[in-house]
Here is the input.
Amino acid sequence: MFLFLLKSAFLNAWRHRLRAVLTVTGLVVAILAFGLLKTIVTAWYAGADAASNARLVTRSSISLVFTLPISYKDRIRRVDGVTAISWANWFGGIYIDERNFFPQFAISNGYLDQYPEFVVAEADKKAFLVDRRGVVAGRKLAKRFGWQVGDVIPLKGTIFPGEWSFVLRAIYDGREQNTDENQFFFHWDYLNETMKKSAPRRANRTGVFIVSVNNPDNVAEISAAIDKEFRNSLAETLTETEKAFQLGFVSMTEAIVVAIEIVSYVVILIIMAVMANTMAMAARERTSEYATLKALGFSPGFISMLIVLESVLLCAVGAVIGIALTYPLARGFGNALDNVFPVFNVARETPWLQSGCALVVALVAAATPAIRSARIRIVDGLRSIG
Amino acid sequence: MSSIPFSYVWRNLRTRKLTTLLTAGGMALVVFVYATVLMLEAGLAETLIATGSPDNVTVIRKGSQTEAQSVVDRNQAAIIESNAHVATDRDGSKLLAKESVVLISLQKRGTVKPANVVIRGTNKAGLVLRPQVQIVQGRMFRPGSAEVIAGRAIAERFQGAGLGETIRFGQRDWVVVALFDAGKTGFNSEIWADSELMMQSFRRSVFSAATFKLTESGQFDAVVKELDADPRLTVEAKRETQFYADQSRVMALFIRYLGVTLSVIFSLGAVIGAMITMYAAVANRVAEVGTLRAIGFNRRAVMTAFLVEALLLSLVGGVVGLVLASGMQFFTISTMNWQTFSELAFSFSLTPGIVIKALIFSLIMGLLGGFLPAARAARLNIVDALRAG
Here is the structure.
C-alpha cells in the first residue's frame, strides 16, 4: 500500500515537469543560500572556536590599543600555575596595498612553542630563530601572495612608522582544519630594537602576554591572581582565556552576525512561500481526482499522505542537490574571501540543519492543501473544474 | 480592439487569492531584504560623510590610517596652527583643535560585554569646528577638570555614560556633565574630554591629530602643498569628510558585497516563484486564451495581458516589501568598525533613490518571471487552445 502511495506521489510530482523543475531549482537555491550563510556565521566564530581554553591572554585593562611594559613578564611568570609565557604585538603594516590586509604579529621567543597547532618543520624553525628579520607565515598566506622561503617581504608600518623588510624563513601548516593559516609572525626583538632607536618611549612594551597554565581548570583563579598583581598600577591588566579574548572581538561585530542569521531564515521563509504556492496549485488542479479517489473508497488520510509525500519528495530532491552544491560553493567563496575569513569550512551540523529546514518547508507547504483536500465532500470535488 | 482590458488582469489576480498572496508575499520579502541592505549602506554612508565638514581639514601622521594610530607632536601642531589658511574665530583665536584620541573598552548596559569606545580629548575649538555637535543636556566640560561630555548613542548604551554618572579611565573618575547630539554623525559614538588633562592621565606627550577650519574651502590644495613642502612635518592632510569616509571603507565594501550576494540569491528564488505562478496561470487558462484569440485579440495583446499581470503581482510585492522596510528606520545598528576598532552606531536610512531602486528591482523580477509564461500563452494555437477546455 505504501509503495503504491509513494509511486502515486512520485508520478504526481512529476506530472507538471516544468513546475517540478522550477520548484526544485528554487529549493536548491534556498538550501544553498542557507548553507552558505550558516558557513559565514561559522567562519565568523572560527577564531574563537580554534582558540584554546588553557591559554590565557593578558592585555591592558583600558583597551587593546594600550601596551604593557615588558617587565611584567617576570611578575606574571611567578604567579602560581603559570608554566610558560610569551608575548606578541599587533603590527598592522601594509603589504604593497591596503587591500592585502593580513594579521601580523611581532612575537617573542617561545610563542610558537605555546601554539602546537602551528606546525613548522624543525629546520625551518631554526632558520627563523637565527634570522633577526626572519618571518614565519601561514600556508594560506604564502600561497595567496606566491611567497617562497627566502623571499624578502616589505611592509609599510602604520602603527610603527617606516619601511620594514622581512625575510620569509618558514611556512607553518595548521594541525587542525580550523587553524588560521593566514598569519604572519616575526621577531619582537627586531621591532623592539628599532623602536629603541626611533621612539624610545615606545620600546620595551608589548600588546599582549600569552600565558600557559598547568591545569585548565584553574584558569579563573590564575587570571584573577595575575590581574591582582598589577591592580592600581599605571597599566592595569585584564586576563582572560584565549577563547574569551577572541569572542570579545566577535561580540563587537555581533550585529552583523545576527543580521546574517536572520537573513538565512528569511530565505527559508521565502522558499516556503514558493513551495506552498506549488502545492496549493497542484492540489487545486487535482480536486476532482482526489474526489474520485475518495469515491473509490480511499480514506481522507490517504489523500493527505499523497499530498504530503509529493511535497516531501520535491523537497528531498532539492535538499540533496542543494547540500551537495554547498561544498564546492563554500570552497569558491572561501578562496575569494580568504583575507576576510582565514578559515571557511562547512560545519558538520550544517547539512543536518539544511535537511531539517527542507523537511519543515515540505510539511508546512503541504499542510493547508492536505487538510483541505482531505475534508472536501465528494460531490463538490467531482463538480470542481480545477 | 488591440489591447485586453486591464480589469481582466485585475480580476485574474483576485480570483486566485491564495496563490497571488503567496507569490506577492515571497516577492515582498525579497524586496524587503534588498531595500534593507541598501538602507544599511545608505545609513552608514550618511553617518560617515556627515561626520566631517568639507571645510575642515584633518592632519594625521603620514602612513597612519586612523586617529588612534597617529601621532602629531606639539611642535608639529604649532607649525600647523601658524599656517595662514587656518581660519580664526571672531576673538582672533585659531580654529584648530589639537586632539588626542584613545580607545577604551566600556561595558554595555545590562551586559558584561565590553566594546571599544573612542575618547576624544579636545578643546573649545573642537566644538566650534563641528557645528553639527550640539549639547542637548548639561554644560560643556571645564578645561582642566575631570569632566566629559558623551554622545547620545554612547550614553544610551554604555554603563556609566549617562548624564551625572561617572566613567573610570586613565586612573581617574570622570563625571559626565553633558550629553551631546551630533545628528546622524559618528561623533554620537564618542566621549569628549579636555585634551590636556586626558593626555596627562594617559601619560602621553603627543596629540593624535589636528583638525582645523579653512579660511576658504578652495584653499585645500594650497594647504596640502604647503604642509607637504615643510621639512619639519611628517603629516598628511585630508578633508575631514574624506577622512571619515576612508575610515570605514572596508565596512562599506563588506556591506555592499553582502547586499549584492543576498539580492542575487533572493531574486533567483523570487523569479522562480513568479514563474511557477505565471506558468500555472497560463496552463489553467488555455481555453480562455483561445477564446480571447478567437474573438480577435492578437498575440501581442495576450502576451501584454499576462506580462501586466506578472508586473502587477511584483508591484504589489514591491510596495509591501518597502512598507516593511521603512519600519527598519526606527532601528539603530551598532557594530565595531574594523579599521578603527571602535564602536560605530548608525541607522537604516530610506532615501527616495532606494524606493525607486527597490520598485524597479521588483518589476524586473516580475518581468523575468512573467516573460516566458506570457510568451507561451501568446504562442498558443487558437484551435488547440479552444479544444483544451
Chain B is about 50% helix and 20% strand. The CA atoms of residues 109 and 180 of chain B lie 19 Å apart. The mean pLDDT of chain B is 86. Chain B touches chain A through 56 residues (CB under 8 Å).
